[in-house]
Amino acid sequence: MSVVLTPLHYIYLIFIFIIIAAMAKKRDISLICIIGIFLLGLIGTGSLYHSTMGVFNSFVYATKELMPTIFIISVIVAMSNVLIESGINEEIVSPFKGIIKNYWIAYWVIGIVMMILSWFFWPSPAVALIGALFLPIAKKVGLPAIGVAISMNLFGHGIALSGDYIIQAAPKLTADAAGIPVSSVVSASIPLVITMGLVTTITAFYLLRKDIKLGKISTEYTMEEESDKEKPNLVALSKNFKRILALITLALFIVDIFVMYTAKLQGGDATALIGGTAIFIMSLLSIVTYRNQALEKITNNLVKGLQFGFKIFGIVIPIAAFFYLGDSAFTEIFGKILPAHSNGIVNDLGVCLANLVPLNSAIASTTLTIVGAITGLDGSGFSGISLAGSVAKLFSTALGGGVATLTALGQIAAIWVGGGTIIPWAVIPVAAICGVDPFELAKKNLKPVIIGLIVTTVVAMFII
């Protein structure tokens, strides 16, 4: 397995280091990404106007890719506005008040529920459900929004997605690339996923608790969300009627879960079902709550939701545009100017790294982790896991075994990095639902995930 690196690969790599350095200094990186896109286009096409067009087209491409996420966040926010203004949200979370009595319990309960739902339906639709239901009650018991976001990220986009035991999309991709059965990757991943999950979630909770004790994170609950909203002339709803509406809301989402399971809906289809249901719930509750103002309030809440969604994602589009160029987006935007056998800039860099290192179990495990992490830098998590399987097959041939463990390790590294835990433009759904800064969330997740990857890699060395 060999690749030819071109100036485009080196420019892309240089800009990755520049971006990481700028992020470490807490500086905005939109301009850096724009310059990077322009230079990649200029070097690749040799045309000033093509590279200029490429900047705009890369923004369009990124927006198209992000649009389903923008919309699901927007409609959930629109629905949440009605739930909060009517007071129905209080009835929805009331059953959990007896269980979630402090921020310790809130952190673990939210995480475990998120993990279970994500196993069945993937994290995207689970984020919308968990965030809307658990965020208010978590804040009331002292778990700040950033703590809710960390829990949802690590358990959903980390543990559940990296194992993917129910849907098995991730192990199918890596297993096919490695030439082994899916069941082999699933079995080999179990001890690694458990190790990674325990280390990251416990470390993250320890650091979160430390910050709370030192006063670095405020746990004071306010009704700011409610007080900031426009207060229309609401129809007074009795407590029993609110409870009925809350049960209807929950029942509709439970039906969604049943439909997703029986119809095998996943990914974008599952998200679309949740989003459509949220729109109907918002409309129904608006009619009941606002009566004569319902038509106007439905439109207003949709607009507010969309404004929120695009405000959150506006800062991400330039960044996502640059990193999407590391995969198939480059050819779509600038044409077929990469080498004939190229699998994309990011994957080429990963293969090159694999070819440069000598082999033993320690180096093979470390390299698979690094290769997986590199391929996850585009914020997808799934774009490079086939490469992890291919590299694992190559290494296992030289080592005389360990292909399943190496494949699982590469899969875990790629998804934990790119699937939505430490890449700022990948944590946007959780950050938006919880109302936190995506860069701050990624920063909070960074140390636990790095520690987890190190420990998991060491465990893999002993298993091989």
TrEMBL record:
Residue ranges crossing the lipid bilayer per the database entry: 6-24, 31-51, 66-84, 104-122, 188-208, 244-264, 270-288, 308-326, 363-382, 422-439, 446-463
Organism phylogeny: Bacteria, Bacillati, Bacillota, Clostridia, Eubacteriales
Name under which the protein is recorded: Transporter
Keywords in alphabetical order: Membrane, Transmembrane, Transmembrane helix
